[in-house]
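Wed. Picked up where I left off yesterday with FAD-binding oxidoreductase. The coffee machine is broken again, so keeping this brief.
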Amino acid sequence: MPLLPALPPGLLDALHGVLGARGIVTDQADLVPHLSDWRGLYRGASPALLRPGSTAELAAAMRLLHEAAVPVVPQGGNTSMVGGAMPDESGRQVILSLSRLNRIRDLDPVDMTMVAEAGVVLKTAQDAAAAAGTLFPLSLGAEGTATIGGVLSTNAGGNTTVRYGNARDLMLGLEIVLPDGGVINGLRRLRKDNTGYALRHLMVGAEGTLGIVTAAVLRLFPRPRAEAIALCAVESEDAALALFRRFRDRDETAVRAFEYMAGQGMDLVLRHVDGATLPLSERADHYVLVDLSSSRPDADLRGLMEGVLEEALEAGEVLDAALAESEAQRAAIWRLREEHPEAQKREGASVKNDVSVPVSKVPELIRRSNAALTALIPGARPVPFGHMGDGNIHMNLEQPEGMDAGAFLARSHDIMDCVNAIVRDLDGSFSAEHGVGRLKPDMLAEWRGGAELDAMRRIKAALDPLGLLNPGKVLPA
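Structure written out below (tokens, as returned):
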């Protein structure tokens, strides 16, 4: 193993002084899990992992690192899909983990707020809200690993955005440590607070390039007391959108999630995921998962579901449908959707496109992308799926059967460019919920250039003039 560049003389001792023995890891064997990303796109190097036990410890450490001009890469649950939490290969960048900042400081079911530290795992926050008879609605596939700090720094979306919004919409206040060690104490539980610039919103979605979120005030909601879930085979992409409109027009507040899945993706789940079964009589080319919920115990969601599906069946939009009759069936239906990434991984190499377009343009996005991708790489298998209700589709492409995985992945940027050309034509975004990270900064100049990118650079320069916080992420070099 090559020797890593040493930290400036005396810095390690000074960091030990503020963080203690538990707060610094330098053994390279212990750093291994922090040096590669979930998708296996990047492998970095680092001289040390810092694990502060409090906001005060982190602030003191950041002052030392700033004075020594040492770059810092914040890392939450390390579930980034775009390499947003990876150090580079130079070995100069210190990794910062907030895993020890894992307390829920407060939960108020009257204010309907929770104050959670950045290292709290998302599932832990969900469970704490449920134990108090409330709901923290942010839900995504990595919720058992992703942390509150990570989902806020990336403005995570997930399955319930159509009803509750993204992470930004679920945040009221933040505690933030700045690159020079300054602390913004913004843990205010207020719905209305017009006192200057909303600095908290700068941090959400900044991917750790402007400041480090150490704690957050999160919005809670009444817990669901009625639910109804169905898996539907639909005639086409347009029929899927028509079904969404039927539910939205009947009762927009009842729609918790509306997920689209292509037949080819469902085939992979049924092939590779043990215990996965299709609760419909026949295979289809297009499916949707409809998830309804209400805080009213007397809400007749079953009647709503059956009524809308009956109309859609008569109109030829829905071909078949299965309604969950138990919690086990509900979980089994959701599993068919959630296991799409794992099934693609087991099938072989895939290139992922996390894009969004106006909801009305989703069917066109899927059709045009399918045609363009199969023309670009004959035999490749488009596997579109995702959040049709908010316009975010994961327009993924699986390698052709028998093709060398390396040769396929070498075409990754060609594949992304192919999809992005269509997305741009439809007034969409090249990153809907995964962020920019290390994978896509070069796209930012083309999509957000001119005055918009210049304003971003000025903000970065004002808050992090030395460029030490998560370098190489978001902004193009």
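Quick read: Residues 357 and 427 are 6 Å apart (CA to CA).
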